[in-house]
Each structure stands twice: as structure tokens, then as C-alpha cells.
């Protein structure tokens, strides 16, 4: 069983609703908000996607869920560690530092180091650029001011240096390849006369370009280089967009939640969709078997996971599922049932309510009497059910003199004062009984 975790679940749900899902293993899509209200069984495969769309706090919480799943003794396959994955800014900076790229990305606070021309783009989205190519410092400052006047989050934009990837015929070519576990395979190749190659700017290729795309999809010539890029980015599930500048590959971005089955497929290459669906399904089968020690499909028919991870707003905890196994695993399950493993912050337990309040009021009623105690007794029952007595008992005195002063107060104060004065009244009763005997 594969659990696909995403902020926007529509891309993978589109795949599950398509006929291509019949070629892959059973899978389920969960949003990060749904994780807080359900158990995650161990021994399965989990894909953490949409990491670029999560905030820092959400990334840290997702990392705790990852570590809880990894710390369990049951083998569980996990893809895309939330702390180790390099997002767009970190990836371009790392490739530039290693000398693989000449272009890099800069934050808004680092515009003085940017090599012109640049274009501004949102850091956590995969839409087109927010501006045109900016060739001067004045244009760059004006674009930033325009974003600020439009009430857009300026600090979440990046200034990405431009590199010329046009070929001899005046076309820009963009390649896209997917990675699923250890497998890397191509997805598409698009050409456009515009420097930003998107679905809206792509044009129909020539015969030579169509043959080039067929060779690219059939032979996967950039597999080794793409494998190194995904290894540097610590990404095991996603799609990369790249181009070539003078025969040297240049990475633009990596999407950890790629959309491969919702957009219309052009009929340029015969059986392109079927070939990709076969590769995608085979790769999902490979990562689904990898999580089980014997290579079987974890979560298949008859499989009942014994333990699960329960995320919540307060922390992450490994819990035991209620259904017990049968046969030889019974003793092992009973041994695991006695132990409890907590990860991150432990789940808070509610304190027990105060007891013997009614008994104390009955004793007071014998010695003090009165109708007020009967009314206060009913009031104490409500307070005892609402868990309020312990917090208010700490604020009230413990002497009989304060009890007399509290007679003019509210019924709550009277009840709590009586509760605190109970030991003193008992001591007074013992003294009187001892004096009568003597």
C-alpha cells in the first residue's frame, strides 16, 4: 500500500482515477491536515510530496512524522525527507556552488549579487514567471515595487538568473523527467519560440524535433546525469524541468508533486502515454515492494498492520492497533502491547477529577447543617463534572476563619472553602469528642 501525502491532492487523485492506475499498486492520497486525525500503519510506503508548498513549521512537523515512521522497528519505505530535500533556492545554489550551473537564484534581500538578466518567480509555486526578463537594476527595483503595490508576498519571490538555451533554429527546448525511487524515466519534451516554455507558449514541433522527442522518450539519454541531480537534491519522487545551454544541461526546478495525467497529451509520439503509464506503474510497484523485508506487497490481502503512528497537533506517537494477530505472533504482540514508545512530545493526559467531595459535604452537613449546604452540594456536582475544582482550590484559604468570611461570597467560593476547611473541622471534632470523654 502506498500513502501519498500532499498539500494539493488533485494531481495524484487524477492518476488514481485514470485507467493508468490499474498498472500500479493500491494507493491512497492523504493531505497533511488529514494526518492529524488518523493513524498511519507501519510496514507501508509513504511519499512526502508538495514540500515546496509547506511552511517552515509544517515542514518541521512533517519531519517529525517521517522520523516516527523511520524509528519504528517495522520496515517502512519513506520517500522525500522533509528536512533533507533541497527546494528551488537551495537546489540552484548548491548546483552553482558545485560548478554544475553558472546561473543561480537569489532572494529579494540578495539582489545586489544577482547577475543580470533575471526574472522574478514565486518560490513555492510552479506557475510561470511573475515578471519579464529584467535587464537593468532599475527594472529589477521597479518590478519589486510593483509586486509590493499588488499586495503580493515579495519575500517569497526569487530572482533567478537567466541562461540562454535557444538553439540554431530559434527554439527553446524544455525536457521533463520523473524519478520514482531508484528509477528515472523521461516524460515529455516541448519546444517554443518564447524563452519560458509552458503549455500555453509551446508550439507544434517540426519533423526533426518530433524525431528528437521520440528518441528522447525511447532511449532516455540523460538518465545518469538526472540521477546525480536527484541525488544532490535528496529527492526520490518528483519531476525535473531542464534545458541545454551549449550542450550543457541546466536545471530550472524540481516539482515534488508533479501532474502527469490531468493535462492533455499531444499525439506527437505514438503510444507516449501508454509507455509512460507502464514505467510509472512499474516504478510504484518497485517502491511498494521495497518496504517489506520479504519483497511482498505490504498492505495486501490479509495483511493487518500491528502498530501505527498517530500524528496530532501536540506531537507524534507510535500506538498499537487494537486488532490482535493470530497464531505464533500472539506472544510477540502481547510483549509489544506492554511497551509504549513516544516520539517527539508525549500526548498529554487529562487529570483525574477530584473525588470524595460529596462525602466531605455530607460530613459538614451533619455538624453545620442548613439549606445552603444542600444548594452548594448540587453546585459542587456540576463543578466536579466540569473539572474546575482543582484549579480554584489552589487560590482559596485552608482555615475555618476564612470559611466564615466566605459566607457572603458566591456559592462557588463557599463550596470550595468548605472543601478546604474539611480537615480542620475534622480535627476540631476530634478535640471536642476527646474533651467530652475526659
Largest β sheet strand count, sense and barrel closure: 4 strands, parallel
Percentage of helical residues? 25-40%
Spans where pLDDT lies below 50 across 5 or more residues: 290-304, 318-324, 337-356, 391-401
Total of helices? 13
Largest sheet, order of strands side by side? Answer: 2-1-4-5
Question: What's the oligomerization state?
Answer: single chain
Share of β-strand residues: 15-25%
Radius of gyration: 33 Å
Distance between the termini: 82 Å
The SS-based structural class is alpha+beta
Q: How many beta-strand elements?
A: 15
Q: Quick one: overall form?
A: elongated
Short description:
This protein is of the alpha+beta class. The chain has 13 helices and 15 strands.
Describe how the helices and strands are arranged.
Blueprint: E1 2-6, H1 10-17, E2 27-31, E3 40-41, E4 45-48, H2 56-71, E5 77-79, H3 88-97, E6 105-107, E7 118-122, H4 137-149, E8 157-161, E9 172-180, E10 183-192, H5 207-219, H6 223-233, E11 237-245, E12 248-255, H7 272-290, E13 307-311, E14 316-320, H8 329-338, E15 342-343, H9 357-367, H10 371-385, H11 389-393, H12 400-405, H13 411-437
Parallel strand pairs: 1-2, 1-4, 4-5
Antiparallel strand pairs: 3-13, 6-8, 7-8, 9-10, 9-11, 11-12, 13-14, 14-15
Features:
438 residues, alpha+beta, four-stranded parallel sheet, 15 strands, 18% strand, elongated
Amino acid at each position: 500500500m502506498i500513502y501519498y501525502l500532499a498539500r494539493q491532492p488533485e494531481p495524484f487523485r487524477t492518476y488514481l482515477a485514470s485507467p493508468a492506475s490499474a498498472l500500479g499498486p493500491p494507493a491512497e492520497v492523504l493531505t497533511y491536515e488529514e494526518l492529524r486525525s488518523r493513524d498511519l500503519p507501519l510496514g507501508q510506503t509513504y511519499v512526502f510530496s508538495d514540500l515546496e508548498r509547506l511552511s517552515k513549521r509544517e515542514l518541521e512537523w512533517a519531519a517529525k512524522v517521517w522520523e516516527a515512521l523511520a524509528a519504528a522497528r517495522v520496515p517502512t519505505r519513506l520517500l522525500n525527507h522533509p528536512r533533507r530535500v533541497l527546494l528551488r533556492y537551495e537546489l540552484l545554489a548548491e548546483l552553482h556552488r558545485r560548478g554544475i550551473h553558472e546561473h543561480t537564484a537569489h532572494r529579494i534581500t540578495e539582489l545586489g549579487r544577482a547577475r543580470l538578466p533575471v526574472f522574478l518567480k514565486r518560490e513555492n509555486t510552479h506557475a510561470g514567471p511573475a515578471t519579464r526578463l529584467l535587464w537593468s537594476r532599475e527594472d529589477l527595483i521597479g518590478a519589486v515595487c510593483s509586486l509590493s503595490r499588488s499586495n503580493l508576498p515579495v519575500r517569497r519571490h526569487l530572482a533567478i538568473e537567466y541562461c540562454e538555451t535557444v538553439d540554431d533554429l530559434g527554439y527553446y527546448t524544455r525536457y521533463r523527467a520523473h524519478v520514482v525511487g531508484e528509477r528515472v524515466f523521461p516524460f515529455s519534451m516541448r519546444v517554443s519560440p518564447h524563452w519560458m516554455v509552458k503549455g500555453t507558449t509551446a508550439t507544434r514541433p517540426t519533423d526533426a524535433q518530433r524525431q528528437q522527442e521520440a528518441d528522447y522518450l525511447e532511449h532516455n539519454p540523460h538518465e545518469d546525469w538526472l540521477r546525480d541531480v536527484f541525488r544532490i537534491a535528496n529527492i526520490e519522487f518528483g519531476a525535473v524541468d531542464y534545458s541545454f545551454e551549449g550542450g550543457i544541461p541546466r536545471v530550472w526546478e524540481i516539482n515534488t508533486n508533479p501532474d502527469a495525467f490531468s493535462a492533455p497529451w499531444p499525439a506527437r509520439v505514438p503510444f507516449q502515454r501508454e509507455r509512460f503509464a507502464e514505467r510509472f506503474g512499474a516504478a510504484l510497484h518497485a517502491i511498494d515492494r521495497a518496504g517489506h523485508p520479504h519483497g511482498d506487497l505490504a498492505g495486501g490481502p490479509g495483511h493487518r498492520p500491528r502498530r501505527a503512528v498517530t500524528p496530532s497537533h501536540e506531537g507524534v506517537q507510535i500506538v498499537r492497533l487494537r486488532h490482535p494477530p493470530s497464531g505464533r505472533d500472539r506472544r510477540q504482540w502481547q510483549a509489544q502491547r506492554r511497551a509504549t514508545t513516544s516520539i517527539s512530545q508525549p500526548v498529554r493526559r487529562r487529570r483525574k477529577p477530584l473525588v470524595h467531595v460529596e462525602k466531605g459535604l455530607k460530613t459538614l452537613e451533619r455538624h453545620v447543617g442548613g439549606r445552603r449546604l444542600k444548594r452548594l452540594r448540587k453546585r459542587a456536582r456540576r463543578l466536579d463534572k466540569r473539572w474546575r475544582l482543582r484549579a480554584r482550590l489552589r487560590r482559596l484559604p485552608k482555615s475555618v476563619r476564612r470559611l466564615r468570611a466566605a459566607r457572603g461570597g458566591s456559592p462557588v467560593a463557599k463550596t470550595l472553602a468548605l472543601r478546604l476547611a474539611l480537615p480542620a473541622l475534622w480535627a476540631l471534632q476530634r478535640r471536642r469528642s476527646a474533651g467530652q470523654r475526659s
